[in-house]
Amino acid sequence: MDGIQTPLDKKDIWSDAGTTRVPYQIYQNPEIYAEELEHIFYGSSWNYVGLECEVPESGDYRRNFIGEREILMIRKNDGSISVVENRCAHRGAQLCQGLFGNTGAALMCPYHQWTYTLDGELTGMPFKRGIKGKGGLNSDFDMKTRGLTNLKVEILNGVVFASFDHDVVPLEEYLGPDMMQYFTRIFDGRGLRVVGYERQIIDCNWKLQMENLKDPYHAGILHLFLISFGLFRLDQESKCLVDDNKGHSVLMTIKDSEEGNEDTGGVRIAAPDFTLTDHDLIQPLLEFGDRISLSIQTLFPSLIIQAQCNTLATRHVLPKGPGSHELVWTFFGFEDDDDAMNDRRLRQANLMGSAGYVTLDDAEALEFSQLGLAGSPEDEVAVLEIGGKDCESNDHLVTESLIRGFYMRYRDVMGHGKAIT
Amino acid sequence: MDQTEAAQPVTDESILRRIERLQLDYISSIDDGPLDNWPQFFTEKCLYTVVSRDNHSRGMELGVMRFESVGMLIDRATATQHAAVFAPRIIRHVLGPMIVDETGEGYRSRCNVVIYQTSPDGDTMLLMAAQYNDIIVELDGVLKFKEKRVVYDTHRIPDSIVYPL
Ligand SMILES: [Fe+2]
């Protein structure tokens, strides 16, 4: 990308103006982590909060996180959805405790029963005027300014996003046309249904999780299961797309496009030859009217949308300090799935999740990364030069360009100097 | 869990002891290995699933593992040993007392289980608190699991699940 060369920020942790060198500090330094929460998660980002179908009835809520702040996605009486922070404006107590539940017509803090509308406006509290004119609130107390933090909400074909910044660009503009195209390839407007959840703690920085889904290079090397069964190969017909701001991406591979023998450049990939005893485990059916059998979309900052064969899921990355994150998998299907498709989704889920044939390797490798870089000298860096130095879209898989793109966006949002390539 | 038909408590001591031995041999195939023995504890067509209580109580069948035949169990045992990348670890199941009923489908056995995991550095963590909900049948004089549903409470799993549970 051609850019005007701007000087690096005084917080000069990046050793050059590009993103082929990623400082290990950003995976472990608590100050940088605190700034990430502030600038990225609580700044001008659109954050995933859930699926509309998770809160079908008026008063239904789902509790979730944006960064480390707890939020509630609530179905209001008029059918629309609000997102408010799960923190009472009185003394800070958590309003709702369940992961899911129903608040009824109003939100009420269990501690002193301060009560809010489902949009978070403060409507009342017990003994507001005290007893017999003694105690209670003074008459100058302004109820209007004492509501819950209310977030800006947009819903795209059943997927709910929220932002702490009410001046954030519209979601469609935030995603850009290419990302919109692949987002709506899966979320095509049909009614969604949740197939089930998985939640897991992975002890590595949240960005390593995002990098993993922007790293097609590892998939044909690390995942012995996929290689052994011929489910993914680096010589498959493929596409890696990045958006104009470089922070979002989608990578996809085409079914049955691999050639006879993979040219690994003379390196033998150590994988056993393996055939499934029971092939019912994976009997994929192309369901989106094209030949893409795997697509992984990552939306800045922390959402992954996975469609591997027929296992569809959002993976939401929740940072938990610099060295850990929670990964929340919402496996979904469509309201019009028949029994056979439901069976496929349940069986193929064996590939994914905390025990997944594929993702188990990822979670382990990511923890190896965090353990490996822990305590590294301040100037040590990761080297990202596979596939060159740019952050552009590709028609091959042996590339780290999507990760380089992520850090272009990251540097920009963090004020770490606009990166150039 | 769901009592679809009248279940009679099993009081025959020899059956209770055989079922207890089955469960102990089963966890030993995982904790002590070899894992290749693990599929043998199931009937040819079977259901092995590891589901969070959260999913289970809301009627969602999605599990972290779900296998419906001995073949699928063999594939899991093979993949775990030869086609997966993970840090070495030791798994230890601890079973609580069993409640065994006789139903039309076979023996229904329920017991609590906690599973500890120990890292290469020697740190032990509680991997999960769970319950076995099993249906056990006798085939040619041998007791086997026709169903083993591992319903786990620890739905924010503190690590990956490498071995079967
Ligand atoms: Fe991977």
CATH class of chain B: Alpha Beta
Tally of DSSP helical segments of chain B: 3
Number of helices of chain A: 8
| Radius of gyration based on Cα positions of chain A | 23 Å
CA-atom Rg of chain B in angstroms: 16 Å
Shape of chain B: globular
User: Taking strands numbered 1, 2, ... along the chain, how are they ordered across the largest sheet of chain B?
Assistant: 1-4-5-6-7-2-3
Q: Which residue ranges of chain B are poorly predicted, with pLDDT under 50 across at least 5 consecutive positions? A: none
Strand count, sense and barrel status of the largest sheet of chain A are: 7 strands, antiparallel
Distance between the termini of chain B: 19 Å
* Quaternary form: heterodimer
| Helical content band of chain A | 10-25%
CATH architecture of the largest domain in chain A: Alpha-Beta Complex
Q: Which strand order does the major sheet of chain A show? A: 12-18-17-16-15-14-13
Domain count of chain A: 2
> What is the structural class of chain A?
alpha+beta
Q: Largest interface here, residues on each chain? A: A-B, 40 and 36 residues
**What structural class results from the helix and strand content of chain B?**
alpha+beta
Q: How far from one another are the termini of chain A?
A: 6 Å
Strand content of chain B: 35-45%
Short description:
By secondary structure, chain A is of the alpha+beta class.
Structure description:
The complex is a heterodimer of chains A (421) and B (165). Chain A has 2 domains: 47-154, Rieske Iron-sulfur Protein; 176-261 and 269-414, Naphthalene 1,2-dioxygenase Alpha Subunit, Chain A, domain 1. Helices cover 20% and strands 25% of the residues of chain A. Chain A has 8 helices and 19 strands. Chain A has helices at 30-41, 171-186, 206-212, 216-222, 224-228, 339-348, 359-373, 401-414, and strands at residues 21-23, 47-51, 60-66, 69-75, 81-85, 100-102, 107-108, 115-116, 122-124, 152-156, 159-163, 192-202, 238-242, 249-254, 292-299, 303-308, 311-319, 325-334, 381-383. The radius of gyration of chain A is 23 Å and the shape is globular. Chain A starts with 20 loop residues before the first strand and ends in a 7-residue tail after the last helix. Residues 1-10 of chain A have low confidence and may be disordered. Chain B is an alpha+beta fold. Chain B has a single domain (3-152), classed as Nuclear Transport Factor 2, Chain: A. Chain B has a 7-stranded mixed beta sheet with strand order 1-4-5-6-7-2-3. In chain B, a hairpin with a 5-residue loop joins strand 5 and strand 6 (124-139). Chain B is globular, with a radius of gyration of 16 Å. The mean pLDDT of chain B is 95. The A-B interface holds A 99, 194-202, 222, 224-225, 228, 271-272, 274, 276-278, 280-281, 326, 331, 346-347, 349-350, 353-357, 360-361, 363-365, 367-368 and B 50-52, 54-55, 60-69, 71-72, 74-76, 78-79, 82-87, 155-162. Residues 212, 218-219, 222-223, 362 of chain A line the site of fe (ii) ion.
